Description:
Layout: H1 10-22, H2 25-32, H3 36-50, E1 55-58, E2 61-64, H4 66-91, E3 97-102, H5 104-121, E4 126-131, E5 145-150, E6 157-171, E7 191-194, H6 200-207, E8 218-220, H7 223-231, E9 236-240, H8 245-250, E10 254-255, E11 261-271, H9 278-296
Helix pairs in contact: 1-2, 1-3, 1-4, 2-3
Amino acid sequence: MIPRRYLPSLPSLLALEALDRLGTASAAATELALTQGAISKQLQVLEGQLGVALILREGNRLILTQAAREFVAEARKALKIMTDASLALRANPRGGTLNLAILPAFGMRWLAPRLAGFARAHPEVTVNLSTRLRPFDFAQSPFDAAIHYGRQDWPGAAYLKLMDESILAVGTPALVPQPLARAEAVLDLPLMQLESRSGDWARWLATQGAARPRPPAMLFDQYATMTQAAIHGLGLALLPTFLIEEDLAAGRLVPAFGGPIPAHAYWLVWPEARPERAPLTSFRRWLAAEAAQETTA
């Protein structure tokens, strides 16, 4: 339990934060619908509570000390957490908000079509989705869990395997009118790859028994953009098969050489040391069942 004597009053804290952000007491007073005198009074209250001088008074100007600026920077994080908690409560008064970081392609093609089933099974949980392309520190983020691709290398995370991925070298029928005679022939054509998977073509060549140094390739930050570029004939792309099933069936894309090769896996990850909230437990169990059906399908 945190002793209450260490907790500053919220009106005083808001006055200090506004003064730091806006620069003048008059601007802070306008934003908070107070008088300048009331702002000054709140700051005096805060100094009394903390036992530390926070303000330098130069005539009518109020200037934060360096210690006060450092304090505000930390206090602002706490205010952001309180604001997010209030928004989550308003969005779902019964409780049960889950903040999930997703990878865009996997979120769009694999997760999103299934989320309606979770909503029907757990109407008490509101799932908020945001895109994050790389691992982050859960302790410094609002997320309860994330979708991760690759190895089990997310520090401090627990894992639930969702799906293995296989990738296929593809291009348009105009670019590849017939399958290439040898794997090395891809090096004679323009290549495309993700920024986050810049070694994919070298790994693909090695898998085909044609090890080469990492070849140059156009870089994309998302699969959706690279898929469209491949469909419009910009070059060959290594794409997950689950993303291009319709494009292969429709003939918009064709295999360039060989069949799919195994890549890494997709995982649900969540902070191992943080107590697990009920919405995450419900989501994790539901997702485990969905992944099991995917494996047996």
